[in-house]
Amino acid sequence: MKKILFPGSFDPFTVGHASLVERALTLFDEVIVALGINENKTGWLTTDQRYLALSRFYHDNPRVSVTLYRGATVDCARRLEAAAILRGVRSLKDFEYELQMADINRQLTGIETVVLFTEPHLAAISSSVVRELAHLGKDITPFLPAGLHYPTTNKQ
């Protein structure tokens, strides 16, 4: 069974992220959405809120699991026996960063990175843009997957 690890902070998880999961399921048997924990970073949503929301969102899909991890992404991928790491690329800037990380990860562990280019109509959507819109009091529901709800938060 071929698994791919999709790591990120997912603060929040957007329609772009959901699109990458769905597209990866056409290539791999299982997608592991790996929510990275970084105590040095203050999130818009708590780790618990993000984890619970994603776990509920993918509850009915046996091919998608959600996990938390600390430390190096490649260590998480090895521990969970993922064949590869999934990354999405929206721009040339993203590509250059992801290329560098993919090279380092491959040198460290031999784990490959699979890059999926964002669908053009989703390219402008990022977690940081969605957070900024929410901060400005704008409706962010068009940028979140339908059915994804964050518990115990007054965030939209």
Q: Can you give a write-up of this model?
A:
The protein has one domain: 3-Layer(aba) Sandwich (Rossmann fold). Helix content is 35%, strand content 20%. The chain contains five helices and five strands; from the N terminus they run E-H-E-H-E-H-E-H-E-H. The termini are far apart. The chain has helices spanning 15-24, 47-57, 73-79, 92-109, 127-135, and strands spanning 3-8, 30-36, 64-69, 84-89, 112-117.
Q: What is this entry, summarized?
A:
Helices cover 35% and strands 20% of the residues.
Percent in strands? 15-25%
Query: How large, in whole angstroms, is the Cα Rg?
Result: 15 Å
**Secondary-structure element sequence?**
EHEHEHEHEH
End-to-end gap: 37 Å
**Major sheet: order of its strands?**
3-2-1-4-5
What is the topological layout?
Elements: E1 3-8, H1 15-24, E2 30-36, H2 47-57, E3 64-69, H3 73-79, E4 84-89, H4 92-109, E5 112-117, H5 127-135
Parallel strand pairs: 1-2, 1-4, 2-3, 4-5
Main attributes of the structure:
156 residues; 5-stranded parallel β-sheet; 5 strands; globular
